[in-house]
Amino acid sequence: MQNTHVSAEPWPLGVTARYLTVGGATVDLTKGDRYYPTEDGIGETRNHTSVSCAGCPAAEEFSHWVERIGSYGGRWDEHHPEVADEQARSWAQEHAEKCRAMPRPEVAR
Known about the structure:
Blueprint: E1 15-20, E2 26-36, E3 44-53, E4 59-63, E5 65-70, E6 73-78, H1 81-98
């Protein structure tokens, strides 16, 4: 029997896609930025798409950047966020199809 429960509650702020696991938990996709220090001291911020399961500790991060190696060394180039999003959706779908962890209960107040 398939779990067909659909929550009417709004998604948490920043969630761009949501997958329902076999156990009833959710796998959420969000966008984020991460600061990386550089040798020149200025640093740079690189974007990524994150995936995390609300039922188990599984999580993954897919960078919007790719390292290009050339004759003078490496450099980071921004590639299309759609590539990272597609990788994240694929990971989320695969995880949701096999994760049997139940949603974590709300903390009693």
